[in-house]
Design goal:
This protein has 119 residues and is mostly beta strands. Helices cover 0% and strands 53% of the residues. The chain is built from no helices and eleven strands. Strands 2, 4, 5, 6, 9, 10 and 11 form a seven-stranded mixed beta sheet that branches. Strands 1-3-8-7 form a four-stranded antiparallel beta sheet, with no helix packed on it. The chain is globular. The relative contact order is 0.32.
Length: 119
């Protein structure tokens, strides 16, 4: 089993920055990713990082603005130049597969943390 818990969400104005953390425990998995879900929309991929932290992959919508990183106990998502369309509940998730953009590839999920960006 893998346990995941997000923290760091909040309220920020457009153009601002926010950092999210995902504390993970349990057995080792191949990759951990961040997804988000806005009201009335499907859950969408944001970024993912492999076990060593040496390989990352981003959604086009956040490339150049968001940075994913990790250490031995947490995965981080630094979000800069935030836009109102970044408003969503952000989830971290773990997978035994290679880096994937597909939520169905991830077996373990956190509870989510709300990020709200005002215009």
């Amino acid at each position: 089993q893998v346990q995941l818990k997000e923290s760091g969400g909040g309220f920020v104005q457009a153009g601002g920055s926010l950092g999210l953390s995902c504390a993970f425990s349990g057995r080792t998995t191949n990759a951990i990713g961040w997804f988000r879900q806005a009201p009335g929309k499907e859950r969408e991929f944001v970024a993912t990082i492999n076990r060593s932290g040496g390989t990352t992959h981003y959604a086009d919508s956040v490339k150049g603005r968001f940075t994913i990183s990790r250490d031995n106990t947490k995965v981080y998502l630094q979000m800069d130049d935030l836009k109102p369309e970044d408003t969503a509940v952000y989830y971290c998730a773990a997978t035994d597969y290679t880096l994937s953009e597909y939520s169905r590839a991830y077996d373990y999920w956190g509870q989510g943390t709300q990020v709200t960006v005002s215009s």
